[in-house]
């Protein structure tokens, strides 16, 4: 039988002053009051699950191993592994700013999730100044190692070598309001911004890597630089896996296509329209218009042909998709290395699913706040981007493994956080046990229990 203390040393600070009472409307003649303080509690009980997910993926430990620690061992209160895990879990729970570290360093759930007993003498987590010093300490060499660590983590996430890897590559605008290195004014965005690359596995949604870069259309050299490192790393481990690039027309550059073909990487990428292409597929466009006028219904037609732009080294296969509807004609083109595959399949079955990458970026950027690039140094902002990427890895693993078969199997990260992870947890401690009690009326407790079982098998 365990005997739990109702008040311990770690929570005494909450009782130093009489908490202010909050008054509400009476219920059946009785006064309704509330106050902050009393027993040690947290509103982020789901961070316990995320801590287990992070340990399963190993991503935070891999990132920490990339940083050379020159601090005096006896003077260190917070290891890099603990700091990165703390920051990752806080980002997952919606606390994307380093300032949040000051408010959460005494939270018993976050302390326990990173492996610190809440009642211990030195259980407080890193403060904002400590976290900010780490952000500005990491140098370019460590960041390169971290980039490879993410690719290795992606490869390690597969039980066996997959037959194909579909690389979804896309830059996204990150608006900045200071003097950040690499910031540029982007006319399309009408803002000063950075525009980092994001690369995901288009078949599984798993994160592969991200690279910070100036706020402009990517050059061929930038695209090749990222692809070279990813392809080289994948092929060092997987000899038979077919690698395919799927991207929009910004990535369809002659030097890039030449490199892809020379390195046996397939591609299905967008191609900007021009008068030569319109003339080449004029018969298909005219027929689509005629069928729409005849039937009064929307018509989709596909065609394929061989095309060579003046800057291309050779002829390549181009797919034309024509949509004739009530709003007029919409003609789109893609270029591909697949010379025999059906045009409709390549466009609708492969290229159109590129929209999933936008959902992945939304999870990464909107739900996890990866657009918080407020540091002056580009290296510090790249490290921040990696911290938010670690949070993506953790949340994706929770969704794909812990929540498989549930209503949250395809939910946005923000939905999972709000409905499942934001749950109250009350701390009770004894000599050998740290116990958290959660509400009995929590409506999703069965799904929460299932997720814990799937992520962290019972240990005694």
Structural description of this entry:
It is built from 16 helices and 16 strands. With 460 residues, the chain is of the alpha+beta class. It has 2 domains: 41-129 and 418-455, no CATH class; 140-374, Alpha-Beta Complex (Transposase Inhibitor Protein From Tn5, Chain A, domain 1), CATH 3.90.350.10. The strands form 4 sheets. An 8-stranded mixed sheet has the order 9-8-4-10-11-14-13-12, sandwiched between helices. Strands 3-15-16 form a 3-stranded antiparallel sheet. A 3-stranded antiparallel sheet has the order 5-7-6, with no helix packed on it. A hairpin with a 2-residue loop joins strand 13 (316-325) and strand 14 (328-336). The protein is globular. The two termini are 15 Å apart.
